[in-house]
């Protein structure tokens, strides 16, 4: 498979290839991996992981999907335009029968749910020189369990970045901090992409010297102050913690920080004007079942989202009912999750 992918890239000049990637840490890191392996390739980012429109593919012959969930209709459109397609997404398998379509979704080829696009590039090609970059993308996407050899490699070669390979060590490491710094480039992903490129011949300190790091520090101060002063907006139960982050800056990040502080096995939920975020860094419960109550989803068991018209209080009542329903709670068992 690895040689097949290498041969496909060799068939085309670099200016005939287009990478279409998600603007988050995993998409940026995976794109860096592809550029490192196959040379400078035009890379376009989408802030929506389910894009609403395709980039311009004029004069392109190879289209590479990276950490984006394109629809079957969109993929078929690209194929009909005469382009070959490599799909490195890890969300939902698009099993399209076409001789020019190559789906490398890790759920399909490995039967693994905790391999992100960055982790997939590591699993396929093992580029040791940029192992820490692919680990940043994997950790940022909460996809670490099925790429243990990646984090072991980083632990051996960059011990200052990670103190161990267990979840608590990884999510409290500089590797995860670098992912959060890179995420500050979400609105301007090419800035993060170019910064990370510069790190390859030098080192990760370029990120700590960047404007992104200054923004990250300011963000952490805002999160810290909220969690310390707005305790009435945080409801804690035995099974879950829910935060009302309505009208706050950085929605979705308060649940992340509190989960990392407490390091327990509860599910952390955030409610922001009807938008919901689900996090479970250390527990064994599959948040996808819970997010389905609100029409949501997720690529794997640890992170997801959803939307609701219910108020914060109404959402709490629904979640409590869900936990109290023993027949439904039997479904909420990560150990029985099928990929």
CATH class descriptor name of the largest domain = Alpha Beta
CATH architecture of the largest domain: Alpha-Beta Complex
Oligomer: single chain
- Termini separation (Å)? 21 Å
Structural class: alpha/beta
Number of strands: 11
- Classify the fold: give the CATH topology of the largest domain: inorganic pyrophosphatase (n-terminal core)
Write a compact overview of the structure shown.
The protein has 339 residues and is of the alpha/beta class. Helix content is 43%, strand content 15%.
Topology:
Elements (H helix, E strand, L loop, with lengths): L1 H9 L6 E6 L2 H14 L3 E5 L15 E5 L5 H9 L3 E4 L13 E3 L2 H4 L7 H9 L5 H10 L7 H10 L9 H5 L2 H10 L5 H11 L5 H4 L2 H19 L4 E3 L3 E5 L8 H10 L4 E6 L2 E5 L7 H5 L5 E4 L2 E5 L4 H13 L1 H4 L10
Parallel strand pairs: 1-2, 1-3, 3-4, 4-5, 7-8
Antiparallel strand pairs: 6-7, 8-9, 9-11, 10-11
Helix pairs in contact: 2-5, 2-6, 2-10, 5-6, 6-7, 6-9, 12-13
């Amino acid at each position: 498979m690895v040689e097949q992918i290498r041969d496909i890239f060799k068939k085309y000049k670099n200016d005939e290839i287009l990478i279409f990637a998600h603007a988050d840490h995993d998409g940026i890191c995976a794109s860096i991996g592809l550029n490192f392996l196959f040379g400078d390739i035009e890379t376009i980012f989408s802030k929506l992981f389910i894009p609403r429109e395709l980039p311009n593919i004029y004069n392109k012959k190879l289209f590479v999907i990276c950490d984006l969930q394109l629809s079957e209709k969109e993929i078929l459109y690209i194929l009909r335009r005469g382009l070959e397609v490599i799909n490195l997404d890890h969300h939902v398998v698009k099993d399209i029968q076409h001789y020019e379509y190559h789906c490398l979704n890790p759920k399909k080829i490995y039967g693994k749910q905790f391999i992100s696009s960055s982790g997939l590039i590591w699993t396929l090609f093992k580029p040791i020189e940029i192992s820490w970059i692919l680990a940043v993308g994997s950790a940022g996407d909460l996809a670490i369990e099925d790429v243990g050899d990646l984090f072991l490699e980083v632990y051996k070669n960059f011990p200052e970045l990670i103190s161990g390979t267990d979840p608590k060590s990884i999510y409290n490491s500089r590797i995860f901090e670098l992912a959060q710094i890179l995420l500050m480039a979400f609105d301007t992903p090419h800035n993060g992409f170019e910064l990370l490129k510069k790190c390859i011949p030098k080192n990760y300190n370029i990120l700590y010297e960047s404007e992104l790091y200054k923004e990250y520090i300011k963000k952490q101060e805002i999160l810290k102050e909220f969690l310390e002063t707005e305790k009435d907006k945080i409801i804690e139960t035995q099974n879950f913690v829910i935060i009302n982050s309505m009208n706050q800056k950085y929605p979705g990040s308060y649940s992340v920080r509190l989960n990392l502080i407490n390091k327990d096995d509860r599910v952390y939920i955030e409610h922001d004007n009807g938008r919901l975020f689900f996090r479970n860094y250390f527990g064994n419960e599959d948040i996808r079942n819970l997010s389905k109550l609100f029409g949501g989803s997720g690529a794997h068991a640890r992170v997801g989202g959803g939307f609701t018209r219910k108020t914060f209080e109404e959402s709490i009542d629904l979640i409590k009912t869900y936990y109290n329903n023993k027949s439904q709670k039997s479904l909420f068992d990560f150990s029985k999750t099928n990929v």
